[in-house]
């Protein structure tokens, strides 16, 4: 009798503890890896606005600026250090993992062994961690997960994927591994294939970087040398749309998701179309074209991305078109130049 009473009492205490936890825990605790890159810093700002400053932890291997440190929690962790990641997840009671650490398409070709380690071994670490601690995990993929054998205009959600960069290979690997863990272990793996993401922050060494660099160079020097041919069409998106897509997608109930991996996009344009849109804001643009090895990468990627499945399944809808993207970038890059001064 005593035993039964004690058992009941303990259970009530347990249930109370769980419900107090549930009440207190309105927001998920989110860890962003590779968080000091182009997307991570903006992503932390966006999600901190939604879930609270201390609920979003940035991590990377880079020494943070004082602004980053003042903005919210920042921790050093190498994506190749499983135990280090494990400690953060446990100590900070992490619920969601946003995995941004990667070497992008152009830089990955310059150091394939490092790209294999960071992009593939890093993915092995985070996916095991997510499985072990039952985390919701978001891993971005890319238009670079397609190759010359894929249909390019438009590129549907499901089609041939035979990329020719180590970056693309690592992203196909991540997509497949995530889907496998979902079917095999019930892991809540979520992945969006982003196009080139445009923001005023410096890009990380990709093929779509020209669409950012052009604003910085034109506003600083009045001229830009483009490494892609003028008629190279690629899918693109302003960071505002990318982060809204990520945030909305993370909140979609599992019952609505038909897939774990979705294409998303906002627009497609060529360098000459971007220049034409910019020339409505700046007079006398001097653009020269000198294609390099990034041209071969761009020529193997989608030109127009079909995101109809994301629109259908979770109501994805882009908001920033080319005209607005140019307006936003003009304003944001000018602000950065004022803040940091001319180089
Ligand atoms: N920016 C885009 O246009 C775009 C488009 C599609 C997909 N994505 C994906 O989004 C993610 C973030 O992209 P981004 O543009 O911010 O890239 P980025 O290159 O700017 O940032 C990547 C970050 O990873 C970090 N990193 C590198 N090695 C690491 C290690 N060993 N341990 C921990 N961190 C490490 C870097 O320090 C860097 O801060 C990437 O996975 C990328 O593939 C980006
Ligand atoms: C497209 C995207 O994955 C990245 N910006 C790159 O060009 O590599």
TrEMBL record:
GO MF annotation: an example: L-threonine 3-dehydrogenase activity
Highest taxon in the source lineage: Eukaryota
Xref: CDD domains: TDH_SDR_e
Homology family: Belongs to the NAD(P)-dependent epimerase/dehydratase family.
Domain NAD-dependent epimerase/dehydratase: start-end pairs: 30-264
Name by which UniProt lists this protein: L-threonine 3-dehydrogenase, mitochondrial
Pfam families tied to this protein: Epimerase
InterPro entries on file: Epimerase_deHydtase, NAD(P)-bd_dom_sf, NAD(P)_epim/dehydratase
Biological process (GO), any one: L-threonine catabolic process
